[in-house]
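Final report, closing paragraph on structural work. Over the funding period we assembled a curated collection of sequence-structure pairs, and we close with a single example.
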Amino acid sequence: MNELLRQLLFLPEQRASLAREIDGLHYVVILVTMGGAALITVIGGYFLIRYRRRIQDTSRPHPGVFARPALILETLALFALGFIFLAFWNAGTRQFIDLRTAPEGALDVYVTAKQWMWKFSYPQGESMISVLYVPARRPVRLVMTSRDVIHSFFVPEFRIKQDVLPGRVTTAWFEATEPGAYPILCTEYCGTSHSEMRGQVIALDPADYERWLVGGAASTPAFAQEAAARAEAGQAAAERPMPARGEDAAARHGCLRCHTLDGTPHIGPTWAGLYRSAVPLEGGGERIADEAYITESIMDPLAAMHRGFQPVMPSYLGIITPPDISAIIELMKSIRDVPRGPVVPEIPGAGGTGGAAPGGTTR
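Its predicted structure, as stored:
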């Protein structure tokens, strides 16, 4: 039943000692809420039919409120609601205390959050960026603080989420039930690269963990080395300036085959000096090249065509991700003051120019 409900609610796997208990309360709350909603719907439907409007018989006196037989049912319902409230409060309070109180003998790891990375320090002196190595089947207590703004440490498979505050120390603990690599997310908006503030918890068998303490990442199993490499690559990408990441995204998606960054005319409008400029449109009128127009032009290029250019750009809807769009816009902002050349668009196929859009379409 637990696995069925977990899949029906699209919850991640349970990989910590308290995850199943937390999900259990989650299931009960949802089932009771849905049952109550169904009961209210049935009772409301019955009242609509039973007490629908009729010609009133004024000869019979209207009974007083306390003379209704339903008074007993109403009282029982109130007591039932009070009991349910107290039961949920008791279960929630007990879980809160369990999550806040680490067992004896827990391994302490000191966590420092900053824009936009997680730094982990161990009592033995080791320090890691974005990768947290822990022994499986042993409690681990995180002692956390922030160097700049509010962050939030979240590991979905462990069902732990704790705000990390500047100038304060907060704690959380978990016990990984089996070896594996589990993603770390920041769930408190903390700035431009918030969505890329990621990491990995790598839970190792106790023997592998001891080997890691002595020999480092090279002595860990293959899955741990792959997870650590992904986390480090993601961190390196997150640390790059947004315009540089925008240029990488533009090259990766083929944008620079038709658009230039130095003002040179080409198949499509140059991006130099484009941001916040007035764009003349086919059919008359103009638009300001702000974030909304640039995003619309990427997703639906034919909606507001730049006058003087051929309609050869395909839609990138579902192809380019929102972070890449944001980075490309930052790239355009960074070259806003670069002079633009005259609008002399090149015709695809003329003189061997042109490029390939996604899927091989000629641009």
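The first helix runs from residue 2 to 8. The mean pLDDT is 85. We thank the funder for supporting this effort.
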